[in-house]
Amino acid sequence: MLALAEELPSLNGKTDHIPSKESQRQIQEVLDNYAKSVTTGDRALFESQLLDEQIPFFGLGEKLSPSFKPISQSLQGYAGFRKAVFESGKKYSQKISNIRIEQDGDLAQVSLDFETTLVESGESAQGWKILQLLKVQGRWKIVSELYAVR
């Protein structure tokens, strides 16, 4: 049976999950590299921010498609993103805002708003994403990305 919140042990008074200044700086660097790599088409820089290419990486409209298969493999959509952004020959510009970082030890979560614009046409899409990161061998790596786009 699950314990009620008031029955759970304290995290030594740490309940706000505010990142350290150094972690905040390092995670912001990951986010800056993310946006820069999409804007410059630098696949190697983008992939250097990921733990590996098999991470959960999934985008949806505001709701799941009725054809969505509820298995973890359905969330591994980085290959499609890579083709669209880095292999299509199209140029994009990406801006991020409303960044919120939470951290507990070597685990962090980032939520943010984004706008991705197709440079040629000026068409843009906005959305919200959640990134989970782990600090691996002293560096923050993205281990999952889920996003909604409109």
Task: Report on the architecture of this protein.
- This protein is an alpha+beta fold.
- 23% of the residues lie in helices and 35% in strands.
- The protein has 3 helices and 5 strands; from the N terminus they run H-H-E-H-E-E-E-E.
- It has helices spanning 21-40, 43-47, 78-86, and strands spanning 57-60, 92-104, 107-118, 124-136, 139-149.
- A 5-stranded mixed sheet has the order 1-5-4-3-2, with helices on one face.
- A hairpin with a 5-residue loop joins strand 3 and strand 4 (124-136).
- The protein starts with 20 loop residues before the first helix and ends with a strand.
What's this model, at a glance?
By secondary structure, the protein is α+β, with helices and mostly antiparallel strands. Helix content is 23%, strand content 35%. It is globular and about 50 Å long.
